[in-house]
Amino acid sequence: MSKVDEEPRFKKVAEGANDLSLGISIVVAILIGVGIGMGLQKLFDTGWVIWIGVAIGIGAAGRNIQIAYTKQKASLDELAKDPRYSTRREWEEKK
Predict the structure, then answer these.
(1) In this structure, is the dihedral angle defined by the CA atoms of residues 87, 88, 93 and 95, taken in order, positive or negative?
(2) pLDDT tens digits for the chain (95 residues)?
(3) I need a labelling partner for 21 at 20 to 30 A (CA). Which of 29, 62, 77, 94 fits?
């Protein structure tokens, strides 16, 4: 195996950190939304405008969850195609 074919040394650590960052990104998205709402509240001098920022933050957090779910589903679908994990097909053939 050449050096070009080798995986980077910390690839698994980076992937693990990426998976753990979902919780952090949810909190940060909501906090940024609240910050936007507070800025709009000061700009327009109305109390209810902060809820627009909260809604934006919750929407961004939901989008982060959707992106993480899509990545995880694609990874699991790829794993399901692996012949090492084909016990389901063998079980259905035995019936």
Answers:
(1) positive
(2) 455 566 677 777 767 666 678 888 899 899 999 999 999 999 999 889 999 999 999 999 999 899 989 988 988 888 877 777 666 655 566 65
(3) 77
